[in-house]
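Lecture 7 notes: from sequence to structure.
We start with the chain below.
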Amino acid sequence: MMPITLQFDHQRSKNKKMKNKQEKSQIKGPRDTNTVKPVRWDSMEHVRPDFSCDQAEESHSGQPDKVQDQMTSEKLPLPADGQRDEAEPGLGIEQEVTMETVRDRWDSKVEYFLAQLGFSVGLGNVWRFPYLCHQNGGGAFILLYVLLMGLVGVPLFFLELAAGQSIRQGSIGVWRHISPKLVGIGYSSCVVCFFVALYYNVIIGWSIFYLGSSFQYPLPWETCPTEGNRTVKECAASSPTAYFWYRKALDITDSIDETGEFNPIITGCLLAAWLIVCLAMYKGIKSTGKVMYFSSVFPYVVLLCFLIRGVTLDGASEGIKFMFYPRLEIWADVQVWRQAATQVFFALGLGFGSVIAYSSYNPRNNNCHRDAFTVSGVNFMTSVLATLVVFAVLGFRAKTIATECVKRNMKAVFEAMSSTPFPDLLINASDVESITLNEYEHWYRTQGQQLNISGYNITACSLEDELKQGVEGTGLAFIAFTEAMTLFPGSPFWSALFFLMLLNLGLSTMFGTMAGILTPLTDTFKTLRNHKFLFTACSCVVGFLIGLMFTQRCGNYFVTMFDDYSATLPLIIVVIFQTISVAWVYGADRFLEDLKRMLDRPVPVVYKYMWKYVCPVAMLGLLGASLLKMFLERPTYIAWNREKASKEDLPYPDWALAVLSTLIIVAFLPVPVGFIHSCLLERLGQSPADAEAGYMPCATTDLTPLHTLPPSGGDPSSFSTLLEENQDTRLQNGHIEHFETSVL
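Predicted structure tokens for the same chain:
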């Protein structure tokens, strides 16, 4: 936001006199980049001095604050972005107030809501949540997910929303504000966001490639290519969609040890993805907010279209029924609890700092408590909607495959009957179109298995077996779902619609991830803040150059490594520290009082116990289960064997384990480094704020009631004295407060 300058006409002959008064009223103590020129109190009643957002600490200090005691709970409206308040006529004085720390704000609540929703609702809702439901008890997993969402997800999400909105800084500034020793938490969030951005944009690049390939008929993955008069062996042994993904799109190697050259097509798509991100982020939330109207809403339009189309397909009901049938016995499996908690954790984007960054651009009186429930609820409903769509389509795919299997087997049996004496069949093999799957399944159990013993190659053609072949991630999006869409009438249209949806889901999450990097760093370092566009562009260039490692022929294996290990453990540790910092270091009671003052309504006291006990215990349990799984089972990845034309699990080589460990250590390292750095500064007698040249106080637009100002005609130096007294009180308590003036 550009600095706000208010200019009032005045006789130029009094300029010198005003300058002298400014020198008298100069406030002693640490200065921030806000420059406020005091004016005559008797003539500027609409100017209201305000404290920084640190003022919440004053009510808990050991000595009473003279100004805080006089403040009322009156909540005055905040100025809209760019609003310039008109001077009252006849004031007859000149004043210029420059506020460099006035923070950008969302143009509307809708933009903010779509941004938070777009960040939290990502590719995982479409290709991860349905798979977890499928593998872990269907409806039983959904019940477990809802339970953990309420006990852990919503309280932690609300904590991040409230912290960002009240302190009005990115993740670095928020945790530094609570305690300088915790500043490493914010830097760790930035590192994790950077790691995620590196590989996440590669997935967006894959979506761009498939989107471009969808504008042709027939689709290039509908049939196997031929070499001469023969079908390519690798494709014939797998499927057209699997062949296109592994060989045409990725041209993948057989293992992570084989690097191979760069894939030029994927490299170009990655460049396009980073260009889109850079253009959408170059003006901060002003440009990002406008993009969100499309990128956050369009996926819901596509999901509804697919749902309407999917439920009309033959086999959709079988897929949905199989999906939601509850198998409650899975609740006894600890790993199911771990997977459900991890999904809740990542579905809401906890620990990335992006939730904090987005909420920091809100007015301080925004009802973030309601936002926590709204975003979490819509996120969950989106996951359920995506699950309905996925299993309606996969049910259709499974029934189509099973039906083709029945036709193929019955045709083989009928041909064998014409040349070989054959026992009486219990099924009409001459009319395969009339045979249902249930009839074939009954015949296979009673007679088909006996024919297999006699040398006939008859398969079960089980619909349930096809549905049990769960797929997730890229296997779901780029293989199973694309195969199902080839069976749709007008398949290119549906394919383009699907990959455009994936592109928008990925971009909206990517915008939030980049905000988790850019916002805290520009808040912290003045140089970066003054060159925001250049910093954004350089970040995207660096991200593209490092991301080239994912465009190698073995790049898909590195994407899997980063996705599995670069974020999971570090983010769990970050969230544990966040929760302990607020609930125990800052104080849960104190934080609830701050929220009561900010929201002008009490916050349920149950959050105190959630933040102090339930959430830390749950996160420590998740951390322990994740570490236990990592140490008991050697990490593996799924590789594609070209000769066998099939997937196989391979253990990571030693050098890859070293890279994997380095990712985890580097992501978590800022936490202890920040703590040690702060302790060293204390021993040197130098505060962290003084040592950090780019450090900025919390921006605010809140107002102080008029009755706290000196009386009309009073000397402004009297108010300066009052501020100095209050500042001395804070310094005695180990806090350095920054004072600001908001002008309406």
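Points to note: The CA atoms of residues 96 and 461 lie 81 Å apart. The chain has two domains: 28-94+699-743, 109-398+472-680.
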